[in-house]
Amino acid sequence: MKNNSDFFPSLAALHYICQHQNIPFVSYRLPWHSDITTLIQYKTSPKIITDLQELNDADGYVISPFTNQRDTNTYLLEPDIEFKNNNISTEIIAGLRRNETFKSEKSNDNISTTSKEEFEHNVNKAIATIKTGKLRKVVMSKTHVMDIPDDFSAPHFYQKLCVIYPNAYIYFFNMPCVGSWIGATPEPLLTTENELMYTVSLAGTQTHTGLALEQYIWSEKELEEQNIVTNFIAQTLIENGIRDFSKSKVENYRAGNLIHLKSGFEFRKDVLKNNVSKLITALHPTPSTGGLPKKIARDFILETETHDRGYYTGFLGTVHPENGCQLFVNLRCMQLQNKKIILYSGAGITASSVAEKEWIETENKLETLKRHLTLSPSP
Q: Which residues contact 285 (CB under 8 A, 6 or more apart)?
């Protein structure tokens, strides 16, 4: 979608029907692309993936959580219908309107807003643990729950995000037993282009103030945070037999109202030998969403955070046995649940973190979506 005139009314109608009938679907728009691709699975339920190795031969759209817990599963949507933009017939829309297969399946989450006191307590606990040497970095997250505004339309909001954030991966999905999620994530986990694969180290956060990108100056804490992620990715590639990779220099990168530090990694697809799941498992969650060491950080998060992250800081995107994958980390996202909007954000904690500053960073990240919720419904 290039401008406000590119609104797709049939797509919006389809989104509304699939949400209302609880039909599994996803619409996604790749960074710097204009086409919105929509996948619908209306005949059967999406497959539960119990082992990421199954993704090596999978063909569809995968939605995976931060970690499999509390009945939070990895799903593979295997589409019965695929189309781009507004190119869907009224007959298909009418048929979906009559589909009652999934209507009784509802998710049941009870999540409350994380208070400033709780978040800062968790950050200080993380700092203290890091100073013992058990952790090098850990990401603390929070939730913000609000009533859905009276004039809010999820289908229209999704199309707005496609206009507002051209360099983000914009998605909107609904899954029975999961609910509806919308996001505008800036971070690829693992993507394929022709014979090459690509991943990034993305960390450090500042608010965009109108300066030229090169004018943003970073603190030692933010440089350390990004360096931890970069070194982890480089070491993970080497440990998985990928030694011949190129790494771009660190650069400032704008994602909506925020500026991050970013380094890219590129390598040949054939070195994976059709075992992309091994690398996905090794990378996820990276220290940009979990921490380091991986398992200790994950256990700390599960022990400390009172909310279930669900699919926040998980990954999602397309997988194909021959064409590779387009997988992205689920950041800058929100969940629609029981007439509520649940927004998620987090911050990377190191030994030099300050709890108040980390709270402010998470508030700024919430604004990526929150600031646009009350705009008029048409893009």
A: 66, 67, 294, 298, 313
Beta strands in 248-332 (DSSP E): 251-255, 258-268, 291-292, 315-320, 324-329
Going by C-alpha positions, the residue among 154, 42, 39 that lies closest to residue 102 is 42
Whole-number Cα distances in Å, 135 to 296, 305, 325, 366: 7, 16, 31, 26
What is the per-residue pLDDT across 15-65, written as a single tens digit (0 to 9) for each?
999 999 999 999 999 999 999 999 999 999 999 999 999 999 999 999 999
Using alpha carbons, select from 192, 325, 189, 323 the residue that is nearest to residue 268: 192
Distances (CA, A) of 269 to 74, 125, 276, 316: 24, 41, 9, 19
Domain contains 107: no
Does the model's pTM come out above 0.70? yes
- For tokens 């569809």, the residue is 60
Total structural domains within the chain? 1
The CATH code of the domain that includes 307 is 3.60.120.10
Q: Is residue 74 part of a domain?
A: yes
Does 214 fall in a domain?
Answer: yes
Cα–Cα distance measured from residue 301 to residue 346, given in angstroms and rounded to the nearest whole number: 11
List the domain range (segments joined by +) for residue 132: 9-101+112-370
Helix (H/G/I), strand (E/B), else coil: 219: coil
Burial of 195 (0-12, 13-18, 19+ CB in 10 A): exposed
Q: Look at residue 238 and tell me if it is in a domain.
A: yes
